């Protein structure tokens, strides 16, 4: 749960009960999709007779609309079970072999997948390791993709140098976005809980198990229960010391790791509209840490500009109706927030970074689908640049994809006089950026880069801090934004980035 100091200064206005707080102010209306009324509890479904002038329109949320279209239904309500047509199915080296095994068992050894162009297979988790079983998983994927002539298989054969593998991408969730597989209005399923990352594109994206995935491989369909929607209205100008990671840690700390269980989390407001696509991905990426079925940001010009040149597939965005009913709405004045961390051993164990200033750390880890994107490293480089000093603890850098890795060596950091991230990291004494992959986020084999093989204390930009998550079961992980992670690397203590960002 949240720390006492955080809980005493709520930034949420939930339900219809006003809360006296200096952090709450009337939020400006954000476009037409924001409801004019805050609803604490969704009204029970009602059957209506047609009016004299025709059928009464059934207002739906963004998620409901996507699933209604995908199930070829004119309208849907939370709690209904429907067969949904899937647009994209993704699997990777951990769950892919199991999914393939179920597909072959249920549909036959010689069965063909429902659509070879709608299945995306991305090895990314246990890649740069000498573990034979991990390597064998990738071999299984390769054999299956050759057998089925899968269009999108991002293979890696030479583990000694990832750059000689032109097809290899890296972390599946970021690769899906960069390669144009994330499109507004579509349904994207993946055998990974953080598939919800793709909701940043205004689509329904969620993780499924191997059994469901095996069925989707053969039929292109899945049975889903329609989730009710929680709406989060974030307004106010983002302070220069905050990132989207702070926003989602604030939300998870408020509603807890079970507060979004089998619910959709929709994000709107002036703050959301100002976020880049990578920051929106961070926000949607961690809704599963609140137990949510999916997270979603309505598509807008930022979305369309990002997708330009990435996909030739036609897509049609949808938006929540003005009178759609939400299970609950929350309003947040972002301008009043402070840098946060999630203390061990839960993502909802929220605390202000400055409250943890006496916590000594052993290492910093910057990477993963949550915190290993180009903008995440740019943010860390900004802190190192402003300090001009060297890190005091080992600082591991794991780019999410090949593209991110190249950006670290090619893109100048604003205000640096032309220096790249890699130059700034070298001057700060960080480790050389590693081969792109999930790295130590999920622990992995013993020889995984950055893995905690001893009981260490780590500040990490990853998404989970459960016991054993990054390796050793007695390791302690403080989840933080790239700003906070970089600031902590410079001091050897959990550090508020405002100490370096002016």
Automatic annotation (TrEMBL):
This is Aconitase/3-isopropylmalate dehydratase large subunit alpha/beta/alpha domain-containing protein. The keyword Nucleotide-binding does not apply. CDD domains: IPMI. Gene3D superfamilies: Aconitase, domain 3. The keyword 4Fe-4S applies. It comes from Spirodela intermedia (Intermediate duckweed). One of its GO terms (molecular function) is metal ion binding. Keywords: 4Fe-4S, Iron, Iron-sulfur, Lyase, Metal-binding. NCBIfam families: hacA_fam (TIGR01343), PRK00402.1 (NF001614). It comes from the Eukaryota. One of its GO terms (biological process) is L-leucine biosynthetic process. Residues 79-492 form the Aconitase/3-isopropylmalate dehydratase large subunit alpha/beta/alpha domain.
């Amino acid at each position: 749960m949240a720390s006492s100091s955080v809980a005493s200064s709520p930034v949420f206005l939930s339900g219809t009960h006003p809360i006296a707080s200096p952090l709450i102010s009337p939020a400006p209306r954000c476009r037409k999709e924001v409801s004019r009324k805050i609803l604490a509890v969704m009204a029970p479904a009602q059957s209506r007779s047609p009016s004299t002038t025709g059928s009464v329109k059934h207002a739906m949320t963004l998620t409901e609309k996507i699933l209604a279209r995908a199930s070829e239904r004119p309208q849907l309500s939370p709690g209904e079970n429907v067969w949904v047509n899937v647009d994209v199915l993704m699997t990777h080296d951990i769950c892919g072999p199991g999914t393939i095994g179920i597909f072959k068992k249920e549909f036959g050894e010689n069965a063909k997948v429902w659509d070879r162009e709608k299945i995306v297979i991305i090895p990314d988790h246990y890649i740069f390791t000498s573990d034979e079983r991990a390597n064998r998983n990738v071999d299984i994927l390769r054999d299956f993709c050759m057998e089925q002539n899968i269009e999108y298989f991002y293979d890696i054969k030479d583990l000694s140098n990832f750059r000689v593998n032109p097809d290899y991408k890296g972390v599946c969730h970021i690769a899906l976005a960069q390669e144009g597989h994330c499109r507004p209005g579509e349904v994207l399923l993946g055998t990974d809980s953080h598939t919800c990352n793709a909701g940043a594109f205004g689509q329904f994206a969620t993780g499924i198990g191997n059994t469901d995935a095996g069925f989707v491989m053969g039929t292109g369909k899945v049975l889903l229960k329609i989730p009710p929607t929680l709406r989060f209205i974030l307004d106010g100008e983002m302070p220069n010391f905050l990132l989207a990671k702070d926003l989602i840690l604030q939300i998870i700390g408020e509603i807890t790791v079970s507060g979004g269980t089998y619910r959709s989390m929709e994000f709107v407001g002036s703050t959301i509209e100002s976020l880049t696509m990578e920051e929106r991905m961070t926000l949607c990426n961690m809704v599963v840490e609140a137990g949510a079925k999916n997270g979603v940001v309505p598509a807008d010009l930022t979305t369309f500009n990002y997708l330009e040149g990435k996909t030739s597939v036609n897509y049609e965005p949808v938006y929540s109706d003005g009178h759609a009913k939400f299970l609950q709405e929350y309003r947040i004045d972002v301008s009043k927030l402070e840098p946060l961390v999630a203390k061990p051993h839960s993502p909802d164990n929220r605390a202000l970074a400055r409250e943890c200033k006496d916590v000594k750390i052993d290492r910093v880890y910057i990477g993963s689908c949550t915190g290993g994107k180009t903008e995440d490293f740019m943010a860390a480089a900004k802190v190192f640049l402003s300090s001009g000093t060297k890190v005091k603890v080992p600082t591991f850098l794991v780019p999410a994809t090949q593209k991110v890795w190249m950006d670290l060596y090619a893109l100048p950091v604003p205000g640096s006089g032309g220096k790249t991230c890699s130059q700034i990291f070298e001057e700060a004494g960080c480790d050389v950026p590693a081969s792109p992959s999930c790295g130590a986020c999920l622990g992995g084999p013993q020889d995984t880069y950055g893995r905690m093989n001893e009981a260490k204390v780590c500040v990490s930009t990853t998404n989970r801090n459960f016991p054993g998550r990054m390796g050793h079961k007695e390791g302690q992980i403080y989840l933080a934004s790239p700003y906070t992670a970089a600031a902590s690397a410079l001091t050897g203590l959990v550090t508020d980035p405002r100490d370096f960002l002016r």
